[in-house]
Amino acid sequence: GNSVTQMEGPVTLSEEAFLTINCTYTATGYPSLFWYVQYPGEGLQLLLKATKADDKGSNKGFEATYRKETTSFHLEKGSVQVSDSAVYFCALETSYDKVIFGPGTSLSVIP
Amino acid sequence: KAGVTQTPRYLIKTRGQQVTLSCSPISGHRSVSWYQQTPGQGLQFLFEYFSETQRNKGNFPGRFSGRQFSNSRSEMNVSTLELGDSALYLCASSLVTSGISNEQFFGPGTRLTVL
Q1: Are A93 and B100 within 8 A, CB to CB?
Q2: Cis amide prior to A10 (ω within 30 degrees)
Q3: pLDDT digits over A22-50, tens only?
């Protein structure tokens, strides 16, 4: 079946450090891929998405590229801020199937 | 445009009781999904409703049930509550085209505590 694997963390970085959160997936067909973010005390919100191979999603300085050959969708940001502290979820969806979320990666950015 | 609303935001129940949670999706969204979030198990999919029909279902016991009304509002019910049901219950709505949700919009969640 379809699945998403991501590094679970927690990840602790200093402000302005480079961030990578790995995400790999297993899916039949051609899934759409997403990164969601959950700030403390809130629900999840979409951070970025990509719907086909080689697409790059980007938002708020975050980027992720849909790599079909490595079945990956790694999240990157060049310079993190304290306000980026949150839990990040990688997710996929294929037609007529439920959205599948990874376990989430907790990120803490310290000044 | 109003976001996804969930009521109540907080609930405290005792073992054996039942509970009903409500979710109002974004206007025009016909798909509503429910998730259980706990520190130990992460985000687990409960079920999805689309046009009043259950479209997908996760691996939860029959004590967990849901429904969707003609205005797309959804409710989930948990009967015979257990301590392990304590969790944040998240609702998400989406606009479905060609079977793909494109993006899920989440509500703030209902925090259920079972004593």
Answers
A1: yes
A2: yes
A3: 999 999 888 999 999 999 888 899 999 99
